[in-house]
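Researcher: First entry.
Model:
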Amino acid sequence: MADPLAATFRKPFAEQIAALRLRLGNLVPTSAWDDLQHSAHDRGFMVAGAMKADLLADLGAAIDKAIAEGTGIEAFRKDFREIVTRHGWHGWTGEGTAKGEAWRTKVIYRTNMATSMAAGRWAQLVDGKFNYLIYQHSGAKHPRLDHQSWDTVVLPFDHPFWQTHYPPNGWGCGCKARGAHTLAGARRVGGDPDKPLPDGWEAIDPRTGVQVGIGKGWDYAPGASVADTVLGLRDKLDRLPERPSIDLIQDWLQSSVFTNWFKSPTGNWPLVRIPARDASAIGSSKTVADLSAQSARKQLAAHPELTAADYLLAQTTVSQATNAIQDGTNSFIYVREILDGGGHVLVVKATKTGKGLFVTSFRRLSRDQARRDRTIRRLLRKG
């Protein structure tokens, strides 16, 4: 039977990828699973027993591929075997039997999937400014009874429960949390605001030293310590690799946050990422071009026909440009023509210092060939 949790994991979202890569940027050699505790996992990547940096780097790359490309656990297992053989890593728990290897790779794979998903989801919940969170049990065939007792509980976002019980709450835990702005909204998504927390939910299990029902080392909110960092990537998109940077921008453009911002813009909104060679050609130290509030207002006045779907195509206009033309010392024009005679034109301009990069114009192409040619010539003249 297919693993529904694994099926979910093979559909990564932008904040999940960002959270994972924050961890992969800090490889932490360890000798045992509990060398790295609590929120330290948010900012460091570890595999118990992996002491060499080059070994960790290769394991991290395999995990990154499994999550970002959705290749699944069998592909990760194949990579794992090749990596441990090439590095001569021996003595790891599970080595020597097919069953042991299957268990070990499952732990590495699912733990990194679960914690990166939780971190990314926490960032989304923070960004959504939800007032309440709802605990949702995984519905596992053989449930942890404590986890099941928290199912449908609705609590304020800042309730201390979430600091220790935000899921996942142990190895293999598939529980989740959902956000709601109102108690009525919480009911609509399956929460029960009238359900109290079970008595003794804060009690400490003397065997583990953490709350009853929580796995040792899981008594924290995975990702909570990096939520601000993930959200802060709005200003650090240039530092990310190209693909997750573009994915984050596209994800934000699809949200109601962008729609609301565009109606009454303040500050800058990251719109597209241009090739590094183009940025260098126009003297820009940045590759991510912002749409300023002033330009957004001009766009709204000059091109009210543009929809949110059009702005999603801004990146496509750059990435799949049929013509990319440098105009002067600090401007680039991207033209994407499509078969039906339509398309888009996007203009970016670097500031004199090179520290700023802005989209100064984005518009549809006319279906009329002659008019389209005149439009492009005019853009070339004006920059």
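Researcher: Second entry.
Model:
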Amino acid sequence: MRVTPQIKSEIKKLLLKKLNESKNKAVVYTAVKLTQDEIKSLEKAIPELEHKQIEQIVDNSIISGFKVVIGTTVYDFTVNSKLSSLKRLNI
């Protein structure tokens, strides 16, 4: 299948739109639902969260802690990631 310049242009527009949407949005993954006060504390702790639309996802695989995804940046403060790091070090 040949990709025409018009199709390439449309794909580029869609990808840029998606990227811009992700810049204004943050996703917070936690083991339990956070309260508004806890979310405000997170915003203070991670300045990049300010003025972002925050989507909260309860992830049952998280033992404790939280993970924040803003665009392509991931802040992982979960116990799972710490255990995984120790496992890689063979400790």
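Model: Note on the second entry: DSSP finds three helices and four strands in the chain.
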